[in-house]
Design brief:
CATH topology of the domain at 113-143 and 368-479: Methylamine Dehydrogenase, Chain H
CATH architecture of the domain at 113-143 and 368-479: 7 Propeller
Number of helices: 4
Strand order of the largest sheet: 3-29-30-31-32
Helix content: under 10%
Strand content: 25-35%
Radius of gyration: 32 Å
Oligomer: single chain
Largest sheet: 5 strands, mixed
Number of strands: 35
Length: 479
């Protein structure tokens, strides 16, 4: 009678020593100790031993190293845009106040948070009739009108903030400051906010003009404030982008753009991200809740006096004589810029290297032609890009592929201001003082009006009226 054995390899019972296992075909030794039989049995999960996780083999070491490298790379790529939980909890605004651009497009510069200068729906279109003007010499500076509920707010270089009745042009209130008010006011709820070159951001009751709070920044302010979800954003000439609590003026965070990075223009906002330009020729994007960096696109000739325009997942901005478009969703890879810069230098010195790639996020450049340059930032919709040039042409182009022409309108005088799109009609002014109204789909002119002085700032719409600032210091209401 043969002794029945248990197969040490598969655990099968009723096997015979010296013969193959009937289940796994391994030879069953008759002299293997009991402890070895137990050790050789298969288990569902093994942590120790040569087949376990803890026993480190060369392959396991390589796999774990690769996983750690990839995890670290992912973290380095995303750490600047993962919201800091401490900042989110401790530095939150006390209000959810936002500018109501949907119902009142005149409450912010550029008509919306993306600064596209496009208002999809309007109750009625102006017909080109002047209803009042303040008269030449009434205003000075570069502040643009802001309009809501029949009141127009504007800054003055003689250190004043003005509130004016939109129906008559009569003053309602004014407030003295200690610096030029070149910033364009912004309205949210019952507040009107405006900065000045005395470094103060001020909040007023928009009906009475009473000062509600003021915050002193680190330098002159010409950036028009942006109010979103309780945050108030603005930049200073001294390299900082601020986020304040719109209700109290308390600082929530400040973002330092570094040396030679003064912020002159207004920030833009889209999908939780704040975009702004700096004097060193860069476009920045940061998390609006925490101020953590998402992207910095460098272009030496970028216009720091114009705000970024966000539409079609692109950021549009003038850069020298060209229009630049970059990817609005781009996240900068740490050290990539420094690596490409070294590559460019070596390539320029004729090292045997392939041509370096474009800067991360770059989509395209667009120029108006050899003998002209773009003289104003564009207005942008999902189906059209509208931009003026130095030869008096308003160009309507495809916003994704601008080489595709929609139409071109020729006028006299340079087009020096961003067009304004109200529904199906586009309005713009020229250096000759002419306001034009065109069908934005065909380019056919509907009406024009001669204001007899260069139009120096973009036309603003509110209370079913166009408001135009001219070079001789006049403010004109057109219905």
């Amino acid at each position: 009678m043969f002794e029945e054995k248990i197969c040490p390899y598969c655990g099968s019972t009723s096997q015979r020593a010296g013969y193959k296992c009937r289940d796994c075909s391994h030879i069953i030794s008759g002299s293997i100790p009991k402890w070895a039989e137990q050790r050789g049995k298969r288990t569902e999960m093994r942590l120790f031993g040569r087949s376990g996780l803890i026993f480190m083999t060369q392959n396991k070491l390589v796999a774990i190293t690769i996983i750690m490298i990839l995890s670290s790379a992912y973290f380095l790529h995303n750490y600047k845009v993962i919201p800091n939980p401490i900042t989110l909890i401790l530095n939150s605004p006390t209000t959810n106040l936002s500018s109501d651009t949907e119902n009142h497009p005149g409450v912010v510069i550029g008509s919306n948070f993306e600064r596209t200068s496009y208002v999809a729906n309007v109750a009625s279109q102006p017909t080109g009739q002047t209803i009042w003007s303040l008269g030449p010499g009434s205003l000075d500076g570069i502040s643009r009108p802001t309009i809501v509920d029949g009141i127009l707010y504007i800054g003055h270089r003689d250190w004043r903030v003005l509130a004016i009745d939109t129906a008559s042009g009569d003053p309602i209130w004014e407030h003295k400051t200690n610096g030029f008010v070149n910033s364009t006011p912004s309205v949210a709820g019952d507040f009107v906010f405006v900065g000045s070159t005395d470094a103060f951001m001020r909040a007023f009751d928009r009906r009475s003009g009473d000062l509600l709070w003021k915050f002193k920044g680190n330098g002159p302010i010409t950036s028009s404030p942006l109010i979103v979800n309780g945050f108030l954003f603005f930049g200073t000439h001294a390299n900082l982008m601020y986020a304040l609590d719109a209700a109290t003026g308390e600082e929530l965070w400040a973002y330092d753009v570094g040396f030679a990075g003064g912020i002159y223009a207004s920030p833009s906002f889209h999908d939780g991200v704040l975009y702004f330009t700096t004097q060193d020729g860069s476009i920045h994007s940061v998390n609006h809740r925490t101020g953590q960096t998402k992207m910095k696109y460098r272009s030496r000739s970028l216009s720091a006096s114009h705000f970024p325009i966000i539409e079609n997942s692109l950021v549009y901005n003038l850069s020298g004589n060209r229009l630049l478009a970059i990817d609005a969703e781009m996240r900068e890879i740490p050290a990539r810029w420094q690596f490409l810069r070294t590559w460019h230098i070596l390539y320029a010195h004729r090292w045997p290297l392939p041509p370096p790639p474009s800067q991360q996020g770059f989509k395209w450049w667009y120029t108006s032609g050899e003998n002209s340059f773009f003289s104003s930032p564009p207005a942008v919709t999902s189906d059209g890009l509208y931009i003026g040039d130095s030869m008096g042409r308003l160009l309507a182009r495809n916003p994704i592929t601008p080489s595709k022409e929609i139409w071109t309108f020729q006028t006299t005088g340079q087009i020096t201001t961003t067009p304004l799109i109200l529904g199906d009609i586009i309005y713009f002014g020229t250096s000759k003082g002419i306001v034009h109204a065109l069908d934005r789909h065909s380019g056919n002119e509907i009406w024009n009006l001669d204001l007899e002085s260069p139009i120096t700032l973009p036309i603003t719409y509110g209370s079913e009226t166009l408001f135009v600032r001219t070079g001789n210091g006049n403010l004109i209401a057109i219905h």
